[in-house]
Amino acid sequence: MKNLIRSARNLSRNLVLAALGGALLLAGTTTAQATMGSQTKEKPTIVLLHGAFADGNSWSEVTGRLQKDGYQVVAPAVPLRGIASDTSYLSGVLATIPGPKVLVGHSYAGALVSELADTSGVKSLVYVAAFIPQAGETLGTLNSQFPGSELGSVTTTISYPGGLDLAVDPAGAGPVLAADVPARQAAVFVAAQRPIAASAFGEPVEETAPAALPKYAVIPTGDHAIAPAAERFMANRAGAKITEVQGASHLVAVSQPSTVTKVIEQAAR
């Protein structure tokens, strides 16, 4: 009889322990799944938009660092045909990217970032040595309001049936765009330049980026393409969190990729 009672007690205890172990295992699995889901949500896709005279390779050092840190990165080719035209194309690109997105614009692409800010899933904006225009403004006017831009001195024109493009003179563009980039690397950049429609700089911007959307601005103090004073003015007006990079050139994403990456990841978090 005693053996029977002892066996019953042992069976009951084992059943309780098994149930408790199962509950703990289930809780651990649920917690792990929740953590994984949270980590996934914390990793938006980073969309890097290059500026005039450039292509996606201008982001290569930043792209590699972001990918190493677990971010999905898209660096599409910006057509450089004008603000409205480029915005229309890029809105189609963004429509193919699911989930939350951080938009990053360099130089001219700052205008595109502002225009695309209302796109579904955009959680923050980053402006790197970039224009941050408001509705009705033109990039040409903004760049002429403050002294310091030398871009006009190295700009050449390409005329073709139906249009006029702007390019930069390979002989003089290096010191203006990439003073802190090794000369050989700067020469490669200029050799592969993609001209921009001249009308883009006189085209009024249609949208002001929403005030409530978090904004970050990287301002290279050695920028000779867009005057640093103009970048500060636009960034302060937009309520952006500013990171100044002392002595860096307009191609700050090339010369100081670690700093630019840190700002982008801050915006992503």
From TrEMBL:
Residues 1-34 form the signal peptide. InterPro entries: AB_hydrolase_1, AB_hydrolase_fold, Sec-Metab_Biosynth_Hydrolase. GO terms for molecular function: catalytic activity. The keyword Signal applies. Keywords: Signal. The keyword Signal applies. It comes from Kribbella kalugense. This is Pimeloyl-ACP methyl ester carboxylesterase. The lineage of its organism: Bacteria, Bacillati, Actinomycetota, Actinomycetes, Propionibacteriales. It comes from the Bacteria. Residues 46-259 form the AB hydrolase-1 domain. It holds the Pfam family Abhydrolase_6.
